[in-house]
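Protein chain data
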Amino acid sequence: MVFCFISTTVSPPALIYMGQHQEENEKLLKEEGMENSDDLWFHVDGMSSAHVYLQMPRGMTMETITGELLEDCCQLVKKHSIQGCKLDEVQVVYTMKSNLKKTKGMASGQVSYVGFHNPNMTKLHMTTKKNSVKILKRLMETRWKT
C-alpha cells in the first residue's frame, strides 16, 4: 500500500508519497502523477528502508528545498527502516527521480548506488531522533492510502 502525506511546512503544502515494500516502491517508480523528473527520492543510506518521493513544490529545487521539508522526508524514511528506526541518527540519501536508474537484474523496487545515472547528483542528510516524534505525529495526521 502506498501512503501519501501532506507537509504543511511550505506553502502551498507539499505531497509526500511512501512505499513500504518492494512492490509499492516499484509502483512509485512508475506512478502516474509522479512523473515530474524534478521530484525527489529519499532512502536511508546503506540500509533497508521505505522509499519516499517528494512531489516538488513549484519553484523549489533539490538545492533550494527548505530544511523543514527535507527533515519531514528524512524522518519518514528513518521511521520506516527496520534498522534505522532503532538508531539515534542515520544518513539519508536523496536525489531527483530522473537520476534513478533501473538496470536489468535489479529486484522489484530496488535502487542502489549503481542505480543512479549520475552518483554525483545525490545528496546526503544526517537525520536524528531530535524532534522526530513531533514531526512524525504531524505527518501521520495527514496520512492516507492511495
Helices lie at 22-30, 67-79, 132-140. Residues 74 and 140 are 14 Å apart (CA to CA). Residues 2-141 form one domain. The radius of gyration is 14 Å.
